Amino acid sequence: MHTVVLTKGVPDFREGQVSFDEDGHLERGKTPTVMNPNDQFALEAALQTRVRHGGNVSVMSMGPPGYKEVLQEAMESVYADDLYLVSDREMAAADTWATAITLSAAIENLDEMPDIIFAGFKTADGETGHTGPQANWCLDMPLVTHVISLDIDEEERTLRAKRLVEGDIEEIETVEVSLPAFVVTDPEFVPSYRSAGERLTLKDLRAATTERAPDYEDYLTVWDHADINVDPDYIGLDGSPTIVSSVDPIPKAPAEREATMVEPEDVDGMQEVLEAMQSAVGGDAAAAEGD
């Protein structure tokens, strides 16, 4: 069974300030990037499918050359048999619609259509959750979103999934669709390995992907817009109907507590600190003083 997982790089805010150009577009080539956290659940769903049904897991992303490392992260942190990066300048500054067109064209450029395409719920930067469903619209497949568990019947070529209704953890429904299908996993997705055999297979696959990851470029295919036969007018900034009007900096959170500086030689001040600490833990300051 062939599955494709769509992933994306998002700014790593731990590395400091994110870079924007004068038009308000994120400069991804100048911004430290990591794999979108929600995409891990899509990778876990693909790995579960690989364990139970064999086959191949391809991980695909659209972005600058630096996204190679995002794909390596996907291979190392969860699983991948091979990797695809769709990248050139014509794709720069794409919104979700132009991105979906590009990714769907890349999927159609594979040797064969995958049985299942997985995508994460939404990205940590855009927060729209549009790209997966829009790519699915281009591919005209059955779509199941907010998936928290799934099973596949290979003989019947069907996928049965439990999903959250409108993202509500209190309401769950079961749906069944025919393959090929497009699945958007929810952050509540939890993989399930029911037998010792499945758990042993999982262990072997995890070891294999960890071994592959340092040499990930041996498993990487890079395509530009000509390789996937898309018109530059329909991708990148030219193909993006979204207009960025402005970008506001993230405000610094106000301090919620006040701090009082006490010098070590300030006996009275240190005594007050000790009494406050003893009170907080329910002890007795006088007993501590006697010690």
TrEMBL record:
GO molecular function: electron transfer activity
Domain called Electron transfer flavoprotein alpha/beta-subunit N-terminal: residue spans: 23-217
SMART domains membership: ETF
Database matches in PANTHER family: ELECTRON TRANSFER FLAVOPROTEIN BETA-SUBUNIT, PROTEIN FIXA
Entry protein name: Electron transfer flavoprotein subunit beta
